[in-house]
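Much of what follows relies on a compact textual record of a protein's fold. Think of the row as the fold of the chain written in a discrete alphabet. An example makes this concrete, so a full record is given next.


***
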Amino acid sequence: MRTDFTPAQLTDPEVAASEAEIRKCVRCGFCTATCPTYVLLGDELDSPRGRIYLIKDMLEGERQPSPEVVKHIDRCLSCLSCSTTCPSGVDYRKLIDHARAYVEDRYRRPWPDRLYRSLLAAVLPHPERFRLALRLAGLARPFRGMLEKAPLLRPAAVMLALAPRRLPRPEPEPAASEPGGRGRVAVLQGCAEPVLRPQIRAATLRLFERMGLTVVRAEGEACCGALVHHLGREAAARAAARANIDAWTAELEGDGLDAIVITAAGCGTSVKGYGYLLRDDPDYAAKAARVSALARDVSEVIAAFGLPPAGRAGPLTVAYQSACSLQHGQGVDALPALLLAQAGFVVKQPAEAHLCCGSAGTYNILEPVIAGRLRARKAARLAELKPDVVASGNIGCMTQLAPACEAPVAHTVELLDWATGGPRPEGL
């Protein structure tokens, strides 16, 4: 695609990076077949190439974002299915992240939108605040029907619908055992996952112990920054990245780490992107690149070190739902399904596996209509497989799909832990 940025504009590293991606786009249209919003809505401006044109026009003209442009940018799920499909190698993530930051800096949203976005940014990345908010949701749940009838209050109704009726108790960290001799890893604590499903970390630690891995807790580690980054709050995302880099660098400079392990696919995509996010930071660029190079999804680490002997899976049928952030964001697609099959499960994958379930960070709250249609579509495809359990590698997908699936929804690592000697996952 031809661009007309001025030399002065291209001195901005963000603009230069976006211009390079825009020029790769040949407007072939392959991306439209795999873009969830285009598949649902059929609007060219809700396709990746349509959004690229809007972003190009906005950045070249240094325009104030219009409500119409913001609407189409907001409708993007950042599922990155288009990047997987693109024959020209357009890194769409760079474009949509830049556009969101540009909108956040130059566009004044209606006050209800500002309120919800500020609330999400202030609560979700902080486990204790998030846990308190979910407890308060129980008091507000009886009013959900009233909230749904008022358009301005509909996001609050969606939050109540997604909030679990019962919060699981925090899982105690297992007693310290003899250090494993096969490797030393840090496992990201996360923010939403330990509140909604602490069993995932517990299963990971048990499985790693059987694998002979030593797990260290990096002091000072916090939210990966993905949630605020999706909201266009780039400064907050960079601050979160720096805090985690400091925590992990302390371990790297001590006894070293073989991997930084992430159990939530959305967080994994974010951490693997730290090198790009902080590429122009003279104090953190090298350290960020080092951290990104060590970041691994939990399935990658299990495959690398070897799954322990399994014998409990039986004839259970698992419908594996590949999270967009894992298959498109990280390029890890078949590996989790192969591990489940190795553990003895009968693994099936649904039709339209490339299409998003509608979770996408905070998307299911801020764009509930589209997210609801995508969830229903994904749940129908999973139901066609008649599974005993649905497996996913991302807490956002699990939370999104659980209310719509008849079968229980578990994390991939919970099933692998059970198959190799751990407890049966909840709901199975």
